[in-house]
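Input.
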Amino acid sequence: MADRPLIQHTVCIDLPGEPVECWAETDITVLLRKHRDVIFDIQVKKGATYTVEATEDWIYDVVRKKRVKQGQFQDGQRYHIWISRDFKGHLILKQNGKVYQNYSMQMFGLTNTAASPKAKPEPIIIAIGTNHASHPPTAPTSSKSTNVSPLITYPQAPTPEYLRLAPPFDPLRADQLWSCPLPIKLAPGTTVEPTQEAHVFEVDKSSVPKEVVDALAAGGSDETAIDTNKIATRNWLIGQLAGTTAFLNDNKQWIQELWGEKFRLTKVVHKNVGERLYVVFTGNPRLRKLVTAARYGVKNEKVLTIAGGAGTAESGAAAAWEGSKGAFKKAGLIALIFTVTLDTAEWLHDYEEIGPDGKRKKDFADLLGKIGIDLAKAGLSAAIASVVVGAIVAGLAGTVALPVAAIVVGTIVVAIAVGYGLDWVDKKTHATEHVTSWFRSIGESMKHAAEYLEKSMPKDYDTYPMMYMP
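Output.
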């Protein structure tokens, strides 16, 4: 009897060592598709041990050259793994046995991957670190084109410890590159799909009047300050004016209705529910559209902003939370955008200056640090101002009737004073510099990881470091 012909069957796998099912009388060709690279670069706690675990799927440890469910590395060590292009489940990152982060492909927006085995999936670089004292990067000397695939980055990090001094910068560790040869060679004939183009555009200021740009850029200099601490600069004063305008605009309805009225805190003992505090307004409530009752509980949304949450700890916390959210909504958001615009103008002026060493005075990390601190201070300032106003109102409104007009003016004065205080603390503790150095160290870690990928797999990651321009 003649031999029966074998059925030709091609099976694709993503990781070396992945099992393949075999059928009788079948000629199977195993094709290794291009995997997705994942790099962890964590510098958070010296001496810490990290574990990466895969749920519902497998990872390939490049150093161990083995398909595993989990891998381990030390703080400050770059850890490189492969995952399948349709990786299921999550990558769980643990620090000394405790869950630190949890990642999924859906989180990265990588649920849909090209079907072709020749296409190289985008890499994932996870850089986490505390602030490091580092210096602005110099411009790269490479003249290669920037025809590169988009680099997926996910720098999640704990909030920097602003009040601690930055650790000394170690250039040997920062510039060190780990190299690891590929444990296998891809099948002959496997080619790289045409890469996408990443276009970098330079900002053109020609459409903006030069006088306006120069005025905004110079408005943050110490020479324009009216105080000895060099905080109340021209741009700072403009920012406070914008914030005051935003507060008045967002609260204009109740301000108009209650401007000539007074209110006081009154304690009432109910038979069934016990003691309760109320905000009692003077005037005729029938003539009002917003504040339509003569008396409100201190936790009522309509009086949280007016009284600053005076009365109880719960109402004070609620008022502080509402104040923080208000800094990022409506007119408050517009004022915040205006502040960011001033930050950008000041930064751009310094960015264009070249120092004696041939480096720019500022880089992009300086802009991110300044904006990040200003966003944090906006929410914190609103919360603190609300607490201060609530404490003052609670101390006075329980004994005398307070004019609403005085509360409005007092809230504005307190907000400006709190903002000044936060800026003073920022200047004394160098918080902005710490955040800036943290952004810069994260960017350097990601650039070094991209250089490592280019060095290890030049065909797949040619010119990737060009994505990280200063």
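Confidence is low (pLDDT under 50) at residues 137-203.
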